[in-house]
Amino acid sequence: MSIFDDMAHTWDDKPDREERTRVVAARLREVLDFDGVEAGLEYGCGTGQLSFALADVLPHCLLVDTSLEMLKAAERGIAERALPWDTEWRNLAAQATDHPDDITDVLFCLQVLHHVDDLKTTVENMARALRPGGQVALMDLPKGSSGFHHGPGHDHADNPHLDGLDKEELEQLLRGAGFGDIAWHDNIELERETDDGKVPYSLFLVTARI
Ligand SMILES: C[S@@+](CC[C@H](N)C(=O)[O-])C[C@H]1O[C@@H](n2cnc3c(N)ncnc32)[C@H](O)[C@@H]1O
């Protein structure tokens, strides 16, 4: 069981997450070109909130996560909306030989990469998963976001980038995997509910094409 299996049952109950989904989906509509997109892929989909907010521009979407409980929630969401979508239990940094090629036109990932240790393999897998000309959008905590995770529940070992990602390092990984048209957009400014009230935080948003 991962920390996210425990959180899956109440993940969708938090209004600040709903608001984040609304804001992020609106930004993705601005920065990605959904014309002609047939298939999407969300890595670290959680309960699927973000993909569901984009369902009208994603004829098909594959929702991928390492948490089975999150995926069960995502499957319920797919069924409720009667979407012809799929889920897959997968680690982003799975061995490259195991990773499918050319399966999507657009790939996005919200607040997931800071939980992944092998970012190089992950970014290479993103490049493999995208069809030629495909677009990626990554949204995550920038390095220095040390206040975001706290408490014993966050002592899990699979999050070496817990304080956020180094943008230069990420850009180098994107270039190394063959991505071009790399664009850093304005940060996404959000608020989250904590025991001490509402706390502001920022996510970077980078897009690129393969
Ligand atoms: C902070 S949650 C974000 C969930 C969702 N993107 C959202 O914004 O609501 C991080 C998600 O990434 C998943 N995750 C963590 N490490 C992963 C990995 N290596 N591969 C795939 N998914 C992973 C977790 O199970 C969890 O659902």
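^ S-adenosylmethionine complex. The first helix runs from residue 3 to 7. The CA atoms of residues 33 and 187 lie 19 Å apart.
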